[in-house]
Amino acid sequence: MSKRILIVDDEPNIVISLEFLMMREGHEVRVARDGEAGLNAVRTHRPDLVVLDVMMPKLDGFAVLETVRSEPELAHTRILMLTAKGGEADRQKGLSLGADAYMTKPFSTRELVEQVKELLALTD
Amino acid sequence: MIDGALIVGISCLYLCLLFAIAFWADRRADHGRSVIAHPTVYGLSLAVYCTAWTFYGSVGRATENGIGFLPIYLGPTLMALLWGSVLLKMIRVSKSERITSIADFIAARYGKSQILGGLVTLIAVVGVVPYISLQLKAISWSFIILHHYPEIRMPEQTSLPLWHDNAFVATLLLAAFAILFGTRQLDASERHEGIVAAIAFESIVKLVAFLAVGLFVTLGLLGLGPTELGQLAATPQTQEALRPLLEPSVSPFEDWFAISLLAGLAVILLPRQFQMGIVEISDESHLKRAIWAFPLYLLLINLFVVPIAITGLILFPNGEVDADTFMLTLPIAFDQPWLALLVFIGGLSAATGMVIVESIALSTMVSNDLVLPALMRLWRRHPPPANLGRLLLNVRRGAILVILLMGYLYYHFAGEAYALVSIGLISFVAVAQFAPAVIGGLYWRGGTREGALAGLSAGFLVWIYCLLLPSFARSGWLPPAFMESGPGGLDFLAPQALFRLDGWNPVTHGFFWSLTLNIGVFLLVSSRRKPNAIETRQARLFVDALHQSHPTSPRLWRGSAELRELTALVERFLGVRRTHEAFEYLAKGRGYDSTSALPADAETVNFAEILLSGAIGSASARVMVASVTQEETLGLEEVLDILDEASQIRAYSYELEQKSRALEEATEELRAANQRLQELDRLKDDFISSVTHELRTPLASIRAFSEILFDDPTIELDQRRHFLGILVSETERLSRLVNQVLDLAKIESGRAEWRNETIDLRGVIEQSVAATRQLIADRGSQLDLDLQTRPALVWGDRDRLIQVMVNLLSNAAKFAADEGGRIHIHLSTHDDRWRVCVNDNGPGIAEEDLEQVFEKFHQTQIGGSKPAGTGLGLPISRQIIDHLGGRLWALNQPEKGATLCFELPAHPEGRTGMKGST
Known about the structure:
The complex is a heterodimer.
Chain A: E1 4-8, H1 12-24, E2 28-32, H2 35-45, E3 49-52, H3 61-70, E4 78-83, H4 88-96, E5 101-104, H5 109-123
Parallel strand pairs in A: 1-2, 1-3, 3-4, 4-5
Chain B: H1 4-30, H2 39-46, H3 52-55, H4 57-65, H5 71-80, H6 86-97, H7 102-109, H8 114-147, H9 166-182, H10 193-223, H11 226-232, H12 236-246, H13 253-269, H14 271-279, H15 286-302, H16 305-315, H17 326-333, H18 337-379, H19 388-414, H20 418-421, H21 423-432, H22 434-443, H23 449-474, H24 481-485, H25 506-526, H26 533-543, E1 559-560, H27 563-574, H28 576-589, H29 602-616, H30 618-628, E2 630-631, H31 636-711, H32 717-749, E3 756-760, H33 761-778, E4 782-786, E5 793-797, H34 798-815, E6 822-830, E7 833-840, H35 873-883, E8 887-893, E9 897-905, H36 908-917
Parallel strand pairs in B: 4-6
Antiparallel strand pairs in B: 1-2, 3-5, 6-7, 7-9, 8-9
Helix pairs in contact in B: 1-10, 2-10, 2-15, 4-12, 4-16, 5-13, 5-15, 7-8, 7-22, 8-9, 8-18, 8-19, 8-21, 8-23, 9-18, 9-19, 10-16, 10-18, 12-16, 13-14, 13-21, 13-25, 14-18, 16-17, 17-18, 18-19, 21-25, 23-25, 26-31, 27-28, 27-29, 29-30, 31-32, 32-35, 33-34, 34-35
């Protein structure tokens, strides 16, 4: 079943790989290059799941996550944090702010695909 | 004519004000809220140094000697520099030993000798009483002159009946004041807060009065045109009189030196200065301010001496007016009755301040060092009265009265005689005789009682012979032949040319001989025997005073004593209540529950002796305590043993203090170092976390695409090629990053290799352009160069400079406008530096980012997306340029995009070449 996926990341090559993986799974994919654009995209396109980077220009991933969780009509959006910030403190921060999952770069494509599947299954 | 009643009224009002201030300060002190515990008050109280002799006499001296009046103030100013050592030592010793006068100080230093204290007192009284007369005379004269207002008439010496002589009335009033506030309690080591407050107030009054006349006269002088001034000073007489002032010649060096030294000594040795400077100080830290505040006071009070003297000489050219009265006669001549009255009050302040403090100080000395020893001799045969305290207080009150009356009588009989007029400096010389015993005693352990006695006596005798007797002779009381040819015609003994030392000012001459003989005899006699036990103990106490903040004498006493007898003895002088309080304090300090539990040991006996010292002087206290105890005499050897032990303990504790201070310092340093390390650690952590973040990003792409390609063999060829291309570029990015991180680490740690040589920046630019030409062309940008025709020589590493230049060019290529991008390289010279600027026509750098672009991993966005760089290029470039002694910075030209410039010092060869070419 096709879902709407939003990828928010400022690294063009990572975006390309994620886009490929998600489309291969048959999802509808949108891309945003920074936090602000990402937040707008969540509001306008209401994706089922967001793959969210942390270190981005304009608005960082944690801020996007916090805003999304604070708006009732967006709060149910699944969010997968995918970031090069690999410290335990960052992971805890992400999870406590309400991320559904937290993965660090470099990531295993298989694990990522599995994780996305799991999260999407929960929305049904 | 100013009504006599008005003057008397105002004088009385002024004295009442003084009474009120003293009363108020004493009340405050009784309630524990001291008004004098302030460094400025202390500084002002020292200004009791400036008497009527300063107030009126400075102008007089200036008319005779020009700037010759200055050494009297220069000396104390210079001496103030030494106060931090000399005066501090004296203060510490005096506080811990309860020393209350200069006589007590000298007596205590040389084994608590009664006879020494007596001699010092005698010298002080003989030397200082005429000086008191001078003050009385100033009061009386100023009164008479003011009374004749507006007429200017010099007072005549007339013998008035006592009750009509205002000097006599003033004497009695001052005696009353001194008795009332100076002898409230027997313990003279207690401070007289009321007196100090009143003296500080008087110091302000006399300064204000002096400055008022000074300003009035000086402004008046300035108001005259040069011609008027010239006319005024035209008569030959006036010109002659003005010569010393208008063409100041420094009087002979020996006079300047001698009088400066003399005044510098007097300012700590005069009984009133000892009283104010040492006995009355409430906190030794006040000394710090006095060291500059007191000289400042002297400067201010001398500021207008010369203008006043000049005006006086112009106005009264015929010498009909005594120059010593110019302060008062000038305001009268200018019809300024209120100013004249103010001057009168100022002079009164100066005179009364001196008289009060001096009489109190002298009375303590007389009662403790002259009268009490005599009484004690008497008491051996007749039992003394029970309340000795009251008796001694009365002795002291009587002494004040007698001293002041003596001053009055000397004034009354000497009157106009030279012996009175010239007494100021002569009095100083008498007091200066204490210097060898005091200063020698503070810095030399070898002085003995006999040495001090002999030195003082010799100096005093020479003083009488060379200064006092000649002043009598000049007053007509002795045959003048004595002056010229010496006694019995032995002209090498002529009192003002002793041993044919001719041509010196009499004061300088007398000072020189008396002090020389004093020091010589002091040293010679002292060296005849070793200091005995008690002298050794006191010597240690005095000489080492600065090593301890509260010097205490080691317990050098062995014998048997009864506590009851000790307290009974102290009670007889201090009263039951104070004695009880004092011994209770001692018991508490030593950890005993009650006074009765105190052992009558060395410490208690010593305590009682010091307690008594404050009341009756150290020498008498010692004799008194000895009368109720059985002391075993300690041999010098034993004393030295005990002292050595004490000083060893002191040395240990000093060492310990040093060690613990050093430890504290080390701890502090360690803490700081640790903080620095933590800071460095944090920076390193930040760097590492940035590096890992930067490494993870390309690694993520590489892993993702590798897995995609690996998992899915069916991907179309085009897409496969695209993905492989990404793999290659991300791998390149990764290795570039690793290289740059290593490079930066190498440069920062100083391990980079530099192959420095003289290079031409034009070559560097050309090579860098060649290396980036393709990149620039790919972006479709245009490059233009603006170089010099002459070589741009700098000292540096060619490869490193190319690295910097390539970095700047590739940045410019990245940021130049997409359409019609332009890059401009400009080479120019600024002073002795070469500057290269690379400019693009891109969006420029935000103002707040101009410095941040040099931070590691800072990356500027291009059109919202991330540039393909490592964020290390500029930090590395800056490190390189810094290392070569130049600087690299960014600037903005809004329309023209970003500009990055670096400067390097021009190589000397290049510089000379430049010079040659211009």
